[in-house]
Amino acid sequence: MSPQVLDALRRPVYASAALGISAVFGTLFLYLNQFLFFAPYFVFFVPSEGLELFTLDVVLSALSGVVIALSIFQIRYIPRLSMGRARAGFGGIAIAFIAGACPCYYLVPLLAVAGGAGGALVTVGIIFEAYQIPLKLLSVGLLGTVMYTLERSLRAACTVKPSAPEEASSPPR
Amino acid sequence: MALGAGYLAFSGTLSQSNTTNGSGLGPLSINSATPVLGSANAPVAIFEFGDFQCTYCHQWFLNTEPQIIQDLVNTGKTKLVWKDFDYYGPDSTSASEAAYAAGEQGKFWQFYDYLYSHQGTPNSGWASRANLVTFAQNLGLNMTQFNLSFSSGKYDSLIKSNFADGQKLGASGTPTFVVLGPNGKTVQLVGAQPYSAFETAVNSVAGG
Q1: pTM for the full model?
Q2: Hey, which end of chain B has fewer CB within 10 Å, N or C?
Q3: Order of strands, edge to edge, in the sheet holding A36-37?
């Protein structure tokens, strides 16, 4: 029996959504972590000591795409399932975005726009940047847990209950 | 060493602007207190707006700066100019003050190297005033002269004006670089970009 998440991703719409979301997130992660530059020239650059972070970014992008696509699938076909885990997944994605983003992109504008609160946000940003690898590992863990939970939820939703076979549901093909 | 580095320059995407400044007035001014690495007569200047606590500045120091020094600075094509853009915290300002104090003994760039080579987690105390004094001792500086300068606060206004200069140029954080050509053309590079981007920018502004 193949995993339910793979069954869901065999549908072209959800596979395309997962790929598209992963590509967008991947571009954003690589830009924020300074592996990808758009100005003044387009440059892709992975320094040797950045390999860990680059790998984490790729894994996070892929997981984010799959989790979001599966969450949409769940909302679309099995709305009665709890959205709590999907929310945890979005939390993981948010952490991944904040962690490691180079302060060169946001510190001064943040200070200018938000004043005193901006100063506090800048401090948080600097702390997040300093601990980006553990934070991103936490994000991978969260997204992995969400994937596992989604798989279990989908499997349970598709299981035929012996006592009431007429109630069994299956996502439409 | 860069792994899997790819590079593509789009023609017509240079963020260039004209400036009336060479080495005179304006945010890209160079005065007697401004640390400059390389020949003063080099036609192109690379201004680094940095913070000694900034981790991406450290990345640039490790991955890009050595080749810039070897291929562009030591060959007389460019000079590297330091401008503080301190906002990680008070330790950043202290680090800048200490570097300037070392500069009075002709060791700004040695101190700069030492700071980046010993960089720790931002605001963890690695750049505390006590540690900065130890760094100066380790570099063999005259400590009486260093302490006098370091505690004088005489570089406060320079550090503040450098920050204001960065803001005038549109810097939103560190590291930000401005490559200035002999005819006042500039190219701005944001982030720890690789050598190839700097080489292209230098060639672009050097050609007028």
Answers
A1: 0.81
A2: N
A3: A36-37, A42-47, B2-8
ipTM topping 0.95: no
Q: Whole domain around residue B131: which residue ranges?
A: 43-206
CA distance B10 to B8: 6
Contact present, A125 and A106 (Cβ < 8 Å): yes
Q: What rounded mean pLDDT belongs to chain A? A: 76
Q: What is the CATH number of the domain that holds B174?
A: 3.40.30.10
Top residue of B62, B87, B91, B116 to mutate, by most chain A CBs within 10 Å, is B87
Continuous H helices in chain B: 55-63, 65-68, 90-103, 108-117, 129-138, 143-150, 156-168, 195-206
Q: Is B186's Cβ below 8 Å from some Cβ in A?
A: no
How many domains is chain B partitioned into structurally? 1
Q: What is the mean pLDDT of chain B?
A: 88
Where do the domains of chain A lie?
Answer: 4-158
Q: Closest by alpha carbon to B131, among B187, B74, B91?
A: B91
Q: Among B190, B199, B203, which would you mutate to test the A interface (most chain A Cβ atoms within 10 Å of its Cβ)?
A: B190
